[in-house]
Amino acid sequence: MPEIQFDCLASGDYISNARSRTGRAFFYLTGQTQTQINLTKVNFAVAKSLLMILGVLAWMVTLDSTAWSTRPSSQQGQEGAAAFALVSAPRAWQFPRDHGQHPEFRTEWWYFTGNLQSAEGRAFGYQFTIFRNALTPAPRNRPSAWALRDGYVGHFAITEVTQQRFHFEQKAARGALQLAGASVDSLNVFVGDWSARERHGRLHLQAASSFGSIAFVLEPTMPPVLQGNGGLSQKGPQPGEASYYYSLPNLRTNGRLILGADSSQVNGVSWMDHEFFTGVDSSEAVGWDWFSLHLSDSTAIMLYRLRRADGTISRYSAGTLIQPDGRTERISFEAFQAIPGGWWRSRKSGGKYPLAWQLQFRDYQLTVTTPVADQELDTRATTGVIYWEGCVAATGTRAGRRITGRGYLEMTGYVAAARPRL
Predict the structure, then answer these.
(1) Which of 149, 247, 303, 310 lies 20 to 30 angstroms, CA to CA, from 22?
(2) How many whole angstroms separate alpha carbon 165 and alpha carbon 371?
(3) 220-247 burial string, b = 16+ CB within 10 Å, else e?
(4) Is the CB of residue 398 less than 8 Å from the CB of residue 364?
């Protein structure tokens, strides 16, 4: 495919699912063609409006050989990948700097999920994610302010548990002209008016969509938890088939949630994952199942299960048990079981997802289910995949004593026509 140059492209408009409003995207430039706009001959107000609607997919044409994935990092191979840094050894972490972007790696995401409740007793789940994907290892040497190195995508979803409703929207923008970007020295990442920023040790999330908006403040209660081996999470046998990965697993959360005409003050607990990597040309995994749970004994658990094309589970599946004081215990593939059941078929995509799970690790025996079956996201317009991600509840025992919990579950690779390229 020839190089595609987008010197006169802006984006940042929403791409919505059918529950919200009709998605829209515009090709502006293709192939080697460039269009020049003389803004001095165009009314500025009109030009400004055009900037907001032109070409959500134009920069995505450049991404078509990279195909975004939404989580663990067995990844997108692409010619020239060797010029990006590879995840090969544990790193020396520095916070708050490592909350920011890492441009030497191809792909990065900032991932927030949480379970909240209002003063009136209404229960909600939310997901808010910003993805960064680099098109080249170094910035293009072009004078145009329209030139981009990185593309950005945002996913935003709200689950109304009591009302059994699920909403989501997605948006994309180029990392230029202040349409999207990320700081390198702290958490300050945005796609249009969706943002995650750190101020005075607290994390601030903002997003507004056609169905509603959030304005949340998240307060860490423990230092970052380094997943895997000191923050190096190996996802396969090949060199570089890994990510740098840490979590903020217990974020006290409060703020304002607006859905339609209803405005609620909410509070609860959130989980943040931050991963960055470059990846390998191919991987044996075709999908994954990822759990994050806050349990009533004040522990938290992260588990992921990587699935191969033949239906077997990769030995690189793993997890972390997190104690209330931040101490962690790594859970290897041999040390846990995640047994799927309670299958539900999506009427929209035809995907069949397991919505009832049996988890066994250490002295824990848990059943994980969801209060809302349809929490499927069709993000083919931005990340190229259809996946299920939603709030879940846990019940069971620890050493024979009753235990409960809440959290989030993500499942990818269950829709064959829209699986992530791993």
Answers:
(1) 149
(2) 11
(3) bebebbbbbeebbbbbbeeebbbbbbbb
(4) yes
